[in-house]
Amino acid sequence: MTRLVLFDIDGTLVRTGGAGVRAFAKTFANEFLIPEATRDLNFSGRTDPSMVRECFQKNGIPLTTENFEHFFSVYPHWLAYYLNVLPGGPCPGVFDVINDLKRLPDPPTLGLLTGNIRLGAELKLRHHGLWDFFELGAFSDEHEDRHRLAAIAHGRGAELRKAKVHAEQVLVIGDTPLDVACGKAIGAKTLAVATGSFSVKDLAGCDPDYILDDLTKFSTRHLK
Question: Which of 34, 108, 195, 200 would you label with 95, given CA atoms 20 to 30 Å apart?
Answer without folding.
Answer: 200
